[in-house]
Every structure is written in structure tokens, then in C-alpha cells.
């Protein structure tokens, strides 16, 4: 029997025919380690399967889901099929830099870690790639623990947080800890999975270099958070806290996150009322959550500007 590969690269894909080929090429180019590539087609309605099969590399395994289940279901299916010592996730529209997996595994093996993370390169059509996190700050982490991970994941504070990281996981750890993606979660599933791992005692090594190319494609539509989304995130947090007894620093970080989610829910509620010209309701919602004012100057300035324009007497340039 052939030896299992060093790394199983799981690529969840949905209607990815137009952009999955570079992702596959970057995965297959990780030649320093033995790999398998598992493409989980989440019931695409385009030619994703034809494109994947046309590559013709025996290291690729193509699996098509009978029906669309969302990113968490697709990842769970790919992880269940993985035979590698390590499991890496690659989104179908992203790529990995050459040698990325070898660098991450060397770091993890040197520190006897269960997880390794590295910095990301944000790739936009109109600008050179830029590191997602300041290299000096990110490299100084050494290891990523649960308190720092939670503190990074706040809504409307900055464009990116550590929930965007694309870790490499030791498969035996995931099996022992029983960690799986929550199939009910369709937003923030990567944050929740990583938090579950860290809460279960995973050691996470930090490789300072940027080896994952995170693409922001022209014409792609970013999901706009709604009040219901925030409430769903809070529900998932409550379930998480019910399963894990956090240490003191993690509890402090979670308390800050709880306040942030309160503020985010109130802020989005105020904006919804303003958009509907329910000005008294907007004022009442703001009074119930005045802490939301802290978020109004963050990455949603444009949205707030449009909301202000709905106020009585506001000029077109408000």
C-alpha cells in the first residue's frame, strides 16, 4: 500500500469553472511535500467538474455533492476523505505561493504544533499584492492563542481579521478533538472552526511569511452583514461557550467580542430603520445601544453616509 500523502489539500468549489484552474495549479506545484488534492464540488451548475477532470493529474480527487450544502458541509466532506498527515484548505478562487506548505510544515514540526498559519497576500485587480497583516506584527506572534484570535475577530473594526487565516491542520488532532465545521453556519465558519481547535488545546505555530494569495475578484459581491447574520453569530458564540470552559484571558477577550456584537447589532438596526425612514425607531434603537456609535466611523462610512442622506432635511451631499 502506498504511503499516505504529507498534505491533503481540500478545495471546496461552487460554480468555479472560470477560476479554479490556477488554484489547482498552485496546489499541484507544492512539490516539496507529497500531496493529494480533493475538490469537493458543492453541486455546481456550471462546468466546474469538466475543468477539474481536464487537468488530468492523478493526485486530484474530484467529488461532487448531490445537493448544495454550503461551505461548511463541503469542507467536512473533504476533511472526511483526507488521508494526509496534514489538511490544508484552499478556496477555489485563491492560490498558494510556491513552497508554502513546506514552510508551514517545517514551522509546525519544529514547534510540535497541531496547526500552522501564515500571512496572506491580498490580490486585487487594480493594485500590487499586499500582506493582509503587517509583517512585523504578525511575525512577532510566534504562536497564535485563543485570546489573540478572539480579540482580532471584531465586526466593523477593520477590513481583515485572523478569521481570514488559512491554517494547515494536523489530521490526527482534528480526529482526537472531534472538531468539525458546523453545517448550520454559512458565515464565519472558518472563525468558528479555528476557535474550536484552539479551545480544544491546539498549539498553533505562526509562519511569518505570506504564502496564501487571497483574491478579491473584479465583479465579486461581498456579503453585506445583516442584523440576522449578527444574531446567528451570537448564537454560534453561545453554543461555543456552552461547550468550552475558557481560561481567564480568553474570557476577557470574549467579553470584548460580546460587546462588539451588541454594538454591531444595534448599529445595523439603526441603519435599517433609517433606510426605512423610521426615524423614531432609529433613535430608540440608538438609545438602547449607544455603544454602536463607536462603529459608525469604521469601514462602513459610505453606508452611514447614505443612511444620513435619508434624514429629514439632509442635503444630497450629506
Describe this entry's structure for a reader:
The protein has 318 residues and is of the alpha/beta class. The protein contains 12 helices and 9 strands. It has helices at 20-28, 48-55, 71-81, 100-110, 135-139, 146-152, 171-177, 189-199, 227-243, 248-275, 279-288, 301-308, and strands at residues 7-13, 35-41, 60-64, 86-89, 95-96, 115-124, 127-131, 168-170, 204-216. The radius of gyration is 21 Å and the shape is globular. Strands 1, 2, 3, 4, 5, 6, 7, 8 and 9 form a 9-stranded mixed sheet that branches. The chain folds into 2 domains: 7-216, Spore Coat Polysaccharide Biosynthesis Protein SpsA, Chain A, CATH 3.90.550; 227-308, no CATH class.
- Helical percent range? 40-55%
Strand runs, count: 9
What characteristic shape results from the CA principal axes? globular
Strand composition percent: 15-25%
Which stretches are low in confidence, meaning pLDDT under 50 for 5 or more residues running?
299-318
CATH class categorisation of the largest domain: Alpha Beta
Mean pLDDT score: 89
Output the number of helix runs. Answer: 12
Task: Report how far apart the termini are.
Answer: 69 Å
The CATH superfamily title of the largest domain: Spore Coat Polysaccharide Biosynthesis Protein SpsA, Chain A
Which structural class best describes the helix and strand composition? alpha/beta
Amino acid at each position: 500500500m502506498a504511503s499516505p500523502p504529507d498534505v491533503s489539500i481540500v478545495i471546496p468549489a461552487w460554480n468555479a469553472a472560470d477560476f479554479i484552474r490556477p488554484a489547482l495549479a498552485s496546489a499541484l506545484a507544492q512539490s516539496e511535500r507529497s500531496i493529494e488534492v480533493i475538490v469537493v464540488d458543492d453541486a455546481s451548475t456550471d462546468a466546474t467538474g469538466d475543468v477539474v477532470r481536464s487537468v488530468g493529474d492523478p493526485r486530484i480527487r474530484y467529488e461532487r455533492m448531490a445537493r448544495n450544502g454550503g461551505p461548511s458541509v463541503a469542507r467536512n466532506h473533504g476533511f472526511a476523505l483526507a488521508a494526509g498527515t496534514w489538511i490544508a484548505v484552499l478556496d477555489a478562487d485563491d492560490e498558494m505561493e510556491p513552497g508554502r506548505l513546506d514552510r508551514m510544515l517545517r514551522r509546525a514540526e519544529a514547534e510540535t504544533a497541531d496547526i500552522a498559519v501564515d500571512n496572506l497576500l491580498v490580490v486585487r485587480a487594480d493594485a500590487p499584492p499586499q500582506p493582509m497583516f503587517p509583517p512585523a506584527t504578525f511575525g512577532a506572534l510566534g504562536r497564535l492563542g485563543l485570546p489573540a484570535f478572539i480579540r482580532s475577530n471584531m465586526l466593523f473594526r477593520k477590513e481583515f481579521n485572523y478569521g481570514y487565516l488559512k491554517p494547515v491542520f494536523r489530521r490526527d488532532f482534528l480526529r482526537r478533538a472531534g472538531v468539525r465545521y458546523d453545517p448550520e453556519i454559512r458565515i464565519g465558519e472558518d472563525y468558528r472552526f479555528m476557535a474550536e481547535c484552539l479551545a480544544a488545546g491546539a498549539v498553533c505555530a505562526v509562519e511569518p511569511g505570506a504564502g496564501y494569495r487571497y483574491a478579491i475578484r473584479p465583479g465579486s459581491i461581498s456579503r453585506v452583514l445583516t442584523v440576522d447574520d449578527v444574531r446567528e453569530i451570537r448564537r454560534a458564540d453561545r453554543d461555543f461557550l456552552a461547550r468550552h470552559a475558557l481560561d481567564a484571558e480568553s474570557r476577557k477577550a470574549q467579553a470584548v467580542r460580546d460587546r462588539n456584537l451588541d454594538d454591531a447589532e444595534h448599529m445595523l438596526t439603526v441603519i435599517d430603520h433609517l433606510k426605512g425612514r423610521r426615524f423614531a425607531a432609529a433613535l430608540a434603537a440608538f438609545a438602547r445601544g449607544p455603544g454602536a456609535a463607536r462603529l459608525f466611523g469604521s469601514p462602513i462610512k459610505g453606508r452611514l453616509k447614505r443612511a444620513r442622506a435619508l434624514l429629514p432635511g439632509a442635503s444630497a451631499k450629506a
